[in-house]
């Protein structure tokens, strides 16, 4: 019995196909895989989270009247909902999340740092001019004879040890209770508080009244707290009394200056620096944030106290980064080559032992190494019978930090070199041996170039990391030793530790100045990385 043929001349009922011969139905371009309930639920949860974050972010933007930011937030949220509620633009569904994270965590911080570099932002110059005037006036409040005194209770919003402080004061005239903080004073309803005999508040809704011990632990904060009022400001007198004092220094809009009613001194507003300045050059500590143009950058280049040590620090910074990266690479590669030999036994045990430094917290190990290099009781001197003052001399301190970096960094290079060696075919090295090449010639002509092709990006990133390795210096030598004539710049300081000491060391934080030097460092590392990557691409073309 023959089977029906599907070729010419065969008979088949119209519209009928043999069982098993029907072709699979192909999906047209307009059709998509149906969304499962699990996928739909995940989409609803994620979009709900996006909506919640958008609503949460909208309130402070509205309060600050940042309408451009609010419009950008609304447009971004609407775009995300459109993108993920339609079946179109499938590639964008995968690209948009990564792009948003890139903008939020890379581009925005870099742009903010760059914009800060052109301002005087720092301690004393954080807010606007009006805020500076209020701070100057309230800080100068003094008690005057006959001023009203109030029964005082100190309370917090939340944790008594860390929560923001508020004053609960009782007016001796009518017994009314008011609550005050740095933003001002407001009355409380009688049913919101419990007042003990003598006028002190013993309980207040939503606040924790501090006992004597808790208040004593935060006594300096209580002394520093000033509550602005219509007639002056409230300050504490001990832990149980407060007084309404009068501001000695007041702002005069006619001359755009601050006058001291007791001494008669005047400080005139200098808009270029965001400070009130007296005729003799004295500046009030409280100022406001303004743009200063290129002043932070020119300060680095023209101030002899900064530009003088800057070049020497830069040279040592390059030497440290190159030495740390090159030393760890050479030692890690040498160990990897030794364990890569087929004649080596027990390689797994050796590998476990060799990566121990990499598994330990570098923060703790740096502190341990600092003690090991101690002149009097350190392990290094005691073990070898030395009397070297490692951190007291310039070159011994530099050698010490490079040795520490060698110990901490070679396990990483050992791991990546091991992986790269395993990817190099043994036939290549065996072919060089057949041609009569020595092991060194084989390594130099075949193994090393192929290793560099694979590891060059890692070496460049390691260089960039070591160029800004703050912990390696600050936790071991703290930048020292320091010369007698310049306590701000030490022999082992990198640009990043030198910047930290300049911007945050003496007279408060100078974020604008720190951001300017950070841009210098960024430019240096970017140029070095760009040149290195260009050379790496040429090398890849040669050995491709």
Automatic annotation (TrEMBL):
Residues 1-31 are annotated as: Disordered. CDD domains: TM_PBP2. It is a multi-pass membrane protein. Keywords: Cell membrane, Membrane, Sugar transport, Transmembrane, Transmembrane helix, Transport. Residues 314-532 form the ABC transmembrane type-1 domain. It comes from the Bacteria. Pfam families: BPD_transp_1, TM_PBP2_N. The chain crosses the membrane at residues 44-61, 67-85, 94-112, 314-337, 349-369, 399-424, 445-465, 511-533. This is Maltose/maltodextrin transport system permease protein.
């Amino acid at each position: 019995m023959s089977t029906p043929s599907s070729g010419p001349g065969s008979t088949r009922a119209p519209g009928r196909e043999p069982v098993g011969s029907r072709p699979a139905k192909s999906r047209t371009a307009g059709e998509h895989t149906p969304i499962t309930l699990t996928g739909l639920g995940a989409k609803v949860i994620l979009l709900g989270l996006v909506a919640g974050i958008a609503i949460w972010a909208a309130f402070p933007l509205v309060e600050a009247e940042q309408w451009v930011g609010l419009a950008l937030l609304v447009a971004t949220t609407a775009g995300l909902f459109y993108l993920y509620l339609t079946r179109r633009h499938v590639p964008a569904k995968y690209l948009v999340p990564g792009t948003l994270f890139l903008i939020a965590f890379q581009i925005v911080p870099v742009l903010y740092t760059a914009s800060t570099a052109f301002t005087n932002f720092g301690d004393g110059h954080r807010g606007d001019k009006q805020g500076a005037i209020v701070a100057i006036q309230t800080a100068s409040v003094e008690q005057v004879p006959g001023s009203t005194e109030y029964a005082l209770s100190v309370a917090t919003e939340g944790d008594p040890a860390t929560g923001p402080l508020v004053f609960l004061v009782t007016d001796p005239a009518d017994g009314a209770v008011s609550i005050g903080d740095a933003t001002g004073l407001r009355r409380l309803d009688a049913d919101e508080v419990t007042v003990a005999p003598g006028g002190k508040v013993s309980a207040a809704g939503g606040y924790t009244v501090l006992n004597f011990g808790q208040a004593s632990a935060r006594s300096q904060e209580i002394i520093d707290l000033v509550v602005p009022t219509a007639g002056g400001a409230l300050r504490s007198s001990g832990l149980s009394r407060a007084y309404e004092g009068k501001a000695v220094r007041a702002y005069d809009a006619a001359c755009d200056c601050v006058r001291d009613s007791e001494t008669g001194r005047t400080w005139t507003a200098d808009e270029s620096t965001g400070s009130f300045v007296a005729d003799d050059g004295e500046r009030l500590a409280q100022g406001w944030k303004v743009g200063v143009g290129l002043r932070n950058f020119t300060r680095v280049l023209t101030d002899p106290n900064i530009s003088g040590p800057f070049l020497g620090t830069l040279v040592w910074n390059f030497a440290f980064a190159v030495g740390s990266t090159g030393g760890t690479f050479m030692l890690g590669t040498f160990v990897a080559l030794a364990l890569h030999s087929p004649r080596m036994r027990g390689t797994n045990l050796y590998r476990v032992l060799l990566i121990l430094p990499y598994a330990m917290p570098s923060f703790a190990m740096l502190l341990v190494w600092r003690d090991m290099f101690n002149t009097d009781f350190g392990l290094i001197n005691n073990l070898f019978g030395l009397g070297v003052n490692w951190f007291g001399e310039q070159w011994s301190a530099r050698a010490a930090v490079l040795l520490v970096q060698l110990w901490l960094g070679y396990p990483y290079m050992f791991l990546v070199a091991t992986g790269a060696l395993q990817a190099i075919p043994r036939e290549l090295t065996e072919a060089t041996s057949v041609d009569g090449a020595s092991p060194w010639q084989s390594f130099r002509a075949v193994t090393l170039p192929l290793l560099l092709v694979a590891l060059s990006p890692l070496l460049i990133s390691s260089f960039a990391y070591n160029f800004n390795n703050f912990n390696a210096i600050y936790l071991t030598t703290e930048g020292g030793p320091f010369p007698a004539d310049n306590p701000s710049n030490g022999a082992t300081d990198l640009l990043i530790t030198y910047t930290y000491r300049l911007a945050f060391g003496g007279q408060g934080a100078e974020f604008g100045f720190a951001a300017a030097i950070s841009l210098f460092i960024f430019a240096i590392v970017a140029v070095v990385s760009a040149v290195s990557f260009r050379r790496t691409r040429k090398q890849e073309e040669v050995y491709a």
